């Protein structure tokens, strides 16, 4: 049976990377990491605090370090949910290309807005017009998500479990191997 590589989920805020990543890691029997959470644990502070004290640059430095640490030294058998801005640095895109099967979870700007509207922990969305912010980010980032992704999965109008099943089926087809779905 082919060894299933690390699976890394990319996509905009609200695409469901954290939610779907957790579900597919359980089904595949892999360790789950959420890069935002790893960054917060390493810093001993939350993302809003890091943005406030160190700016977005400081956060991006921490993000690259955390990504490199995980792909180089962790189990090599994990599902990793990234933050929405992971594709902004070329060195991150290189790491993604070289070390994993990358899945882009696509969500329309309307869905991103709906799914992020109930929480306030995303500093980039603490603006007067989060829809305009999401749209601007999407225009820049959508081509970059596509550049790093092996698989693109549409998530609009789908329940998280159904998105997870679609991801698992696509990975299985891609690797032409068996994946245990519980
Ligand atoms: N397919 C879906 N259908 C409906 N709601 C969803 C779906 N996927 C995720 N959600 C909900 O949307 C919200 C955001 O999801 P989640 O935190 O997993 O996104 P994310 O991609 O990890 O975002 P971020 O980049 O900010 O970390 C959560 O409340 C989650 O329950
Ligand atoms: O889209 C982004 O740039 C971000 C997304 C979140 O997951 C966090 O990584 C942080 O809030 C930045
Ligand atoms: Mg997340």
TrEMBL record:
Mg(2+) binds at residue 18. Gene3D superfamilies: P-loop containing nucleotide triphosphate hydrolases (3.40.50.300). Substrate binds at residues 36, 60, 84, 141. Its main location: cytoplasm. ATP binds at residues 14-19, 122, 158. Monomer. This is Shikimate kinase. It comes from Marinomonas hwangdonensis. The lineage of its organism: Bacteria, Pseudomonadati, Pseudomonadota, Gammaproteobacteria, Oceanospirillales.
């Amino acid at each position: 049976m082919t060894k299933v590589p690390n699976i890394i989920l990319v996509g905009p805020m609200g695409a469901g990377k954290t939610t779907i990543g957790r579900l597919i890691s359980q089904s595949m029997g892999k360790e789950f990491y959420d890069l935002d959470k790893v960054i917060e644990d390493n810093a001993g502070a939350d993302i809003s605090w890091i943005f406030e004290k160190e700016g977005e640059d400081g956060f991006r430095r921490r993000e690259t370090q955390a990504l490199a640490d995980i792909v180089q030294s962790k189990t090599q058998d994990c599902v990793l949910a990234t933050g929405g801005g992971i594709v902004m640095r070329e060195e991150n895109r290189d790491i993604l290309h070289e070390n994993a099967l990358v899945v882009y979870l696509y969500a329309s700007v309307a869905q991103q807005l709906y799914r992020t509207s109930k929480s306030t922990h995303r500093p980039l969305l603490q603006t007067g017009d989060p829809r305009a912010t999401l749209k601007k980010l999407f225009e820049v980032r959508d081509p970059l998500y596509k550049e790093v992704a092996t698989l693109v999965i549409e998530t609009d109008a789908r329940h998280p479990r159904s998105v997870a099943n679609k991801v698992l089926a696509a990975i299985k087809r891609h690797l032409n191997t068996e994946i245990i779905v519980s």
